[in-house]
From TrEMBL:
Highest taxon of source: Bacteria
This protein's UniProt keywords: Transferase
Glycosyltransferase subfamily 4-like N-terminal domain residues: 15-178
An example Gene Ontology biological process: lipopolysaccharide biosynthetic process
Protein's UniProt name: Glycosyltransferase family 1 protein
Residue ranges annotated for the Glycosyl transferase family domain, each copy included: 187-346
Organism the protein comes from: Chitinophaga barathri
InterPro entries xrefs: Glyco_trans_1 (IPR001296), Glyco_trans_4-like_N (IPR028098)
GO terms, molecular function: glycosyltransferase activity
Length: 368
């Protein structure tokens, strides 16, 4: 069976959980002798699918940033994708984001679309940055109607799709994601010498980083804790201003990340804190589990579904709830160890191999 993936996510993301997910599925498909996997990607600056891991692609203007760079690369890759759609023989098409540009070009061949979350639909009335994307709701609606099958990455996301769009649940297959971090056999030196809480990924809007920042002065006073933000880009001017205003510039730090850096930060953190108001899955939870890092998670979206009994939970709309959880774990090292042990066990329920196997089963079920 031949499956064709398109360019979208790999054009739009250099790092992140979405492109990591597709890369892990594609990599296993390439290695599977019973599968023929192709990707319509001419240029890629993605950290996972690039010229080192997929020889058919090449970097786009490496080392130089200019206005419109991503838009130009998107246009080129979209044109290349359309060409691939017209000339390639494939059994199933799997677009990697929500642009329905391909619908007029695939004929009656089946396609499956993955719904990663319903953040725009649930929070665009609250955050202007989400409201600015006027097309994503309609695009999702079109893809739900036209697709042969839909993958939801959590039961929570499936429920949201059904509630918001009224989609028949029988069309939606829940396929959980996996973890890519593996513990190192050798003892690595800590990247940060002080005790710290770890925050991973983007800090914008619904990610609710501001809640943790608000608590920081008291956490510094009581425990002399530092806060490390891993990935998500450098601090913005407004973030730096807020940090300086609270006198926290010596206690809040940003680390750019790769897998080695991220693993080190998880392994040595006192606690991983995930204050997001909503997640469609939450790969960082599995990463923390893999590295033995105790987790405090919000009750937003899918996080309780992923974390199970291996995490402590708080109400993300209540700052006191988060503070009480942090204080509870900081005052009880045994509880932190117990959560870390539970995390190792919980992680066994999730793997990219399972994600791939279930995806192939779905492809086979819609193949004509």
């Amino acid at each position: 069976m031949k499956v064709l993936f398109d360019h979208q996510t790999f054009t739009l993301q250099e790092f992140g959980g979405i492109s990591r997910y597709y890369y892990e599925v594609i990599r296993r498909g390439i290695d599977d002798p019973d599968m023929d996997v192709d990707v319509s990607l001419f240029f890629s600056n993605n950290a996972y699918l690039n010229k080192n891991t997929y020889q058919a692609t090449r970097p786009f203007v490496p080392g130089k940033n200019f206005r419109g760079k991503t838009r130009l690369m998107y246009s080129i890759n979209k044109t290349y994708s359309l060409t691939k759609l017209k000339i390639s023989n494939y059994d199933v098409f799997h677009p990697t984001y929500y642009d329905p540009y391909f619908l007029k070009h695939i004929g009656k061949r089946p396609f499956v679309v993955t719904f990663l979350d319903m953040i725009h639909e649930k929070f665009s009335n609250r955050y202007a940055s989400l409201a600015q994307d006027k097309t994503i709701f309609n695009n999702k609606k079109i893809l739900l109607q036209e697709s042969s099958a839909v993958i939801a990455i959590s039961e929570s996301t499936k429920k949201d799709i059904m509630d918001i769009f009224g989609t028949d649940g029988s069309k939606i297959k829940v396929i959980h994601l996996g973890n890519s971090l593996v513990l190192s056999d050798k003892k690595e030196e800590r990247l940060h010498s002080h005790p710290y809480l770890l925050f991973v990924g983007n800090r914008n809007s619904y990610k609710n980083f501001q809640e943790l920042l608000t608590l920081a002065p008291e956490l510094v006073r009581q425990y002399d804790l530092h806060i490390i933000c891993a990935g998500g880009g450098r601090f913005s001017e407004s973030e730096n201003a807020a940090i300086r205003q609270q006198g926290l510039h010596t206690h809040i730090h940003h680390f750019p990340i790769n897998d080695d850096t991220l693993r080190n930060l998880y392994e040595n953190a006192e606690i991983f804190v995930f204050p997001s108001l909503y997640e469609g899955f939450g790969i960082p939870v599995l990463e923390a589990f893999a590295c033995g890092c105790p987790c405090i998670l919000s009750t937003g979206g899918s996080l309780p579904e992923v974390g199970g009994d291996a995490a402590m939970y708080f109400n993300p709309e209540d700052g006191n709830s988060l503070y009480n959880c942090i204080r509870s774990l900081m005052d009880d090292s045994d509880s932190r160890k117990q959560l870390a042990a539970k995390g190792y066990e919980r992680l066994k329920l999730f793997s990219w191999d399972k994600t791939y196997e279930q995806s192939v089963n779905l492809y086979n079920s819609i193949k004509r």
